[in-house]
Write a structure and sequence with these properties.
Elements lengths: L2 E13 L5 E13 L1 H9 L5 E14 L5 E15 L4
Parallel strand pairs: 2-4
Antiparallel strand pairs: 1-2, 3-4
Length: about 90
């Protein structure tokens, strides 16, 4: 089954209690399978603004050094490509 994987950043901008502007960027791992992988390949490129709908999946694996690693991914069910940021 075909798979597409990419990372996506979300940025939140806010004002602190002291009135200073601040921002927080979070990185998310996205996975698409089958026809969704085809859409991801066709419609997305670096810098594309996109809305993702899906479910969270957590898994673990052992890396090449024998350490256990944990990953949470969003398995995409749908995506909407936006022309520009909202």
């Amino acid at each position: 089954n075909k798979v597409a994987r990419f990372s996506m950043a979300t940025k939140e901008e806010y004002t602190t209690r002291s009135g200073e502007k601040a921002s927080d960027t979070q990185w998310h791992f996205i996975v698409g399978w089958g026809k969704m992988a085809d859409r991801i390949e066709k419609d997305l490129q670096k810098g594309t603004f996109v809305s993702i709908e899906g479910r969270l999946v957590s898994r673990s694996y052992t890396d090449k050094n024998g350490q256990k690693k944990y990953v949470t991914e969003i398995v995409a069910n749908d995506l909407i490509v936006n022309q520009k940021a909202a």
